[in-house]
Automatic annotation (TrEMBL):
SUPFAM superfamilies: Stabilizer of iron transporter SufD (SSF101960). NCBIfam families: sufD (TIGR01981). Residues 1-24 are annotated as: Disordered. One of its GO terms (biological process) is iron-sulfur cluster assembly. This is Fe-S cluster assembly protein SufD. Belongs to the iron-sulfur cluster assembly SufBD family. Residues 144-366 form the SUF system FeS cluster assembly SufBD core domain. It holds the Pfam family SUFBD_core. InterPro entries: Fe-S_cluster_assembly_SufBD, SUF_FeS_clus_asmbl_SufBD_core, SUF_FeS_clus_asmbl_SufBD_sf, SUF_FeS_clus_asmbl_SufD.
Amino acid sequence: MTEAVATKTAPAQHGLTAHSDGDWENRVPVQTRSERPTSTDVADFARVTGREAVWKYTPVADLDALLNGELDGSRLPVAVSEAAGVSSSWIPRDDARIGRAGIPEERGAAAAWSAFGEAHLISVASAEKVTAVVTRDALDAMPRAAHTIIEAAPQSEGLVILENTGPAQLSENVEIVVGDGAKLTVVSVQQWDDAAIHLASHYATVGRDATLTHIVVSLGGGIVRLNPSIHLDHEGATGTALGAYFADAGQHLEHQVYLDHDAPHTTSRVTYKGALQGEGAHTVWIGDVLIRNNATGTDSYEQNRNLVLSEGTRADSIPNLEIETGDIEGAGHASATGRFDDEHIFYLQSRGISEEEARRLVVRGFLIEVISQIGDEATEERLQAAVEAELAATSGAQATRGA
């Protein structure tokens, strides 16, 4: 005869009941950037609602084709300028060189990763500084996926400029691998047509005593969302992330920057500067810096500055700093959004400069501080002219309203 054994069940806590949306007890909100789940398979990410922390500032309703649709993953039409020590090739998606710098943290990047057929590989192997310009100006409005790898060999030095113009509906991943002792600058320029949509995730791994300077200039496009993640995962690595952006009426420009210090004696500097004008102009900057427990001797600082030129604009600026060790050289962050500095305007007017021209000079200097660090004179001059054109449009609109 088997004896029945009574079991005692603890009373349920009042109000603690599972919801109908799944595994409630095991669902814990992601608190920090380093805890985000990662995958190269879009099926591992739920459909985007716009309520997620990573998407809540983004106009997701306009991104359905890139987030949920079928993407064309064939080769993009690109042109690469010739430079000694720089090579360009296409490699299959199962190549071992793919996935070294990072993998997606959200659905948009995973959708692009799942869809691309071949990756565009740009290799820099010159001990003397070389410049390569990668031009993409022949796309169309078809939803596309792309994957690019920029690789700098140990002890090499190079500047790679990604030029984006024309129409586009593009979602892409860009991997940047900087070898030991190398010095690499990667510049991504967005001057798309007004209706273009561009989602991009950049991942970088920086070798021992190597330096990466990553520069973003976003001027054109209806929606641009470019998120660089720089992993300083070797001792002595340095990462500098710079950005300049100018949002017009109805334009959404978003940048989410991540610096991950995962080795001793690493250094990072982040400076993003933006200007906004026109009804509905919206910019988003989110800066995450993680200093891990093993990253002793870290020196880090991030800042974002926004200059508002007219009513009806919105600038979201969110700096985050996570420190897991107290043995660091220093860490800090700053964020500011405001209008013109009256003292600067007064100073210029006192020297015979009109108020309109004084305002243009202030904005020009504000953004060109970043643009002037690209290191290619032709690109710098062209982007300075583009900023001038934006400012001229501002002056013309103000004159029309005042007439």
